[in-house]
Amino acid sequence: MTEPSASSDITRGRGALLAGAAPVAVQIFRDVIAEAPADLEARYWLASALLGARDPQAEAAMDKARTLHALTEAHALGVDIGRCQTDAAYAGQLADQFYAHRCVALAGVLRGLALANGAADAQSLLGYGLALQHQGRIDEACGAFSAAASANPSSAVRQFLIYPQLFREDGDARHFAAARDWVALHAPAHPAAPHANPPREARKLRIGYVAPRFAGCQLEQFMAPLLDNHDPAAVEVVLYPQQAATEAAWPSWIQTHPIGGLDDRAAAALIRADRIDVLADCWGHTAGSRLPVFAHRPAPVQVAWINFIQTTGLDQMDYVLHADASADLTGMEAVYTERLWPIGPVFNAFRPAAGRLAPTRAPALQTGQVTFGSFNHPAKLSDATLDVWAAALRQAPNARLLLKYGYFIDPVLQRVTQARFAARGVAPERIAFAGHSGGAAYFEAFGQIDLMFDCWPAPGSTTTLDALSNGVPVLAKPTPTSGGLYVRAILNAAGLADLACDSAEAFVGKAAELAADANKLDALRARVRPGFDNGPLADEAGFTRRVEAAFGAMFDLWRSRAPAPPLAAVKGAA
Question: Do residues 10 and 41 touch, judged by C-beta distance below 8 A?
Fold first, then answer.
């Protein structure tokens, strides 16, 4: 409980910070804490002020506020805090329970107590790393994953170090280095017998797809446009999931050969026996990956596609399908072991989930307040992103920001996020939160948003496509990275190239311009859903024909034993 005098001082310090006088605010909050060390609000505001002043003690102050808040919340829920500080098993069990309920900041603090009391096994370290990653504490998460890999140097554990690199600055290069390290340890090249696949004249091209599952998960919205539109007169398709039962809904002519019960060598032998011409990985370096199968070279042509579009690091992977054929990809080749094969104008087609609501007008017309939004994972809310979003909010004083994601159910993550914005001059009450929702409630959430904000260096994918397919404009600042090229291609394909800003200043200016005129927001919104529905993102058959043509050309190159073509030649054919 904040005492009246402390409350008055917090109000004074808050005013100083939001007015840009961070050093003044720092001293005010330090004085409050000296009198009331357990004052949670004072501790959060001190962390904000130190961040605003760029003081090196800021992170330590934020950690103290976060820890105090988490322990206070846990105690209110009946947790024995004293026992957590001495009983590692008890603290770890509670951490698992909070994590299962998406309270990742609470889970992280309790997991930290368990680790401090000796529970430093690989599984506990992985749990700690994931709790940190889902809060956006990427450097700390990578440290936990590295420790887990030391405790259990397995392929699956070390793979956790790869994906989070994309959330960091210079993410493509970091991801490339981590992937190559993983390959050297866990997927070195295995001797493979030559393939004898015959020319494809007078026969169908045989295509295989590998993923833990293709239906009933996020991948389905990307795979369904392809699998439902493949031409059975031109290709034969085999799916290689963990289990066959998950894939019953695909066209009956598509074969399913589960590999969940096979080790890598046996899975590769099965695929080779199926005489697959082009084998595509659809999962990348995420949990459940079967990339080591590709190290055995089960198919003459091997391709990486979907889930994410960075390198696998495998020398045995020939190509990565990439986005817009008009984009300049030449600078990207240094962070890929594969050749880039653009299949523009889009990297994927996308099928919106069933149940989309009717198009809506800009909500600001009725509410009188502009709502910016982001439905992105908290890990994507980088400092660079928040710098620009906060500047946009300062330039649009009539606007608020709604952050919606399952992990934002966590009250500690909410307050830390508000504190990060307060450090940038945005009052906490302007940042609202929503947790996970499904079905009609999920679609209705898009009716609250006037303008979605994208992130960088790790932009949205499914969240961006969901927004566009539900008629909500997305403002982005694509960086010169694989992810940036991807989001730029998405906006171009939806007829919204004007929402791809080339600088922070352009992003802030565009957001302020739209926030100042609800009618302009409404006119923009009227363009979005038709642009998606009538553009290449929804052209499932056209996209599938381009994929089939690309796979056929790759196989023909292998048959001719010709070297892979220069990138310019591939772009010309796309």
Answer: yes
Same domain, 157 and 236: no
Contacts of 199 (CB under 8 A, 6+ apart): 559
CA angle 40, 42, 48 (to 5 degrees): 110
The answer to whether residue 358 sits within a structural domain is no
Domain count, the chain: 4
Question: What amino acid occupies position 165?
Answer: Q
390 is written with which tokens? 């906060």
Return phi, psi of residue 53, to 5°. Answer: -85, 0
10 Å CB burial of residue 568 (0-12, 13-18, 19+) is exposed
The CATH number of whichever domain residue 345 belongs to comes to 3.40.50.11380
Residue 62 lies in a domain: yes
**DSSP H helical ranges for 228-263:** none
Looking at the fold, whether 258 and 390 belong to one and the same domain comes out as: no
| One domain for residues 515 and 398 | yes
pLDDT 10s digits, 177-230: 999 999 999 999 999 999 999 999 989 999 999 999 999 998 999 999 999 999
Closest of 126, 156, 152 to residue 141, by C-alpha: 126
| CA 394/CA 408 separation, integer angstroms | 23
Dmax (CA) for the chain in angstroms is 86
Do residues 330 and 469 both lie within one domain? no
Instruction: Report how far apart, in Å, the C-alpha atoms of 126 and of each of 88, 96, 135, 356, 551 are.
Output: 16, 12, 14, 37, 37
Asked if the structure places residue 417 within a domain, the reply is yes
Domain that holds residue 239: 167-184+196-349+539-574
Give the pair of three-digit tokens for residue 336.
Answer: 């890929």
- The whole-number pLDDT of residue 32 equals 97
CATH number at residue 84: 1.25.40.10
| Rounded CA separation 214/255 (Å) | 13
Evaluate if residue 319 carries a pLDDT over 60.
Answer: yes
218 and 339 co-located in one domain = yes
Distance CA 566, CA 341 (A): 10
Q: Are residues 62 and 175 in the same domain?
A: no
Q: Do residue 63 and residue 89 come from a single domain? A: yes
Q: What is the CA radius of gyration of the chain?
A: 25
Region class of 78: left (phi > 0), else alpha (psi between -120 and 50), else beta = left
Instruction: Give the CA distances from residue 113 to residues 67, 124, 144, 469, 478, in Å, rounded to whole numbers and listed in that order.
Output: 10, 11, 14, 44, 39
Q: Based on the domain organization, do 155 and 179 belong to the same domain?
A: no
**How many angstroms separate the CA atoms of 335 and 446, rounded?**
36
DSSP secondary-structure letter at 204?
Answer: P
List the single range of 16-20, 280-284, 303-307 with lowest mean pLDDT. Answer: 303-307
Q: In angstroms, how far is the first alpha carbon of the chain from the final one?
A: 64
- 239 bridge partner residues: 209, 256
The answer to whether position 356 is within a domain reads: no
Residue 75 burial (CB count, 10 A)? 13
Residue ranges of alpha helices (H) inside 117-158 are 122-133, 138-151, 155-158
The CA-atom distances, in angstroms, between 502 and each of 51, 318, 478, 505 are: 27, 32, 7, 8
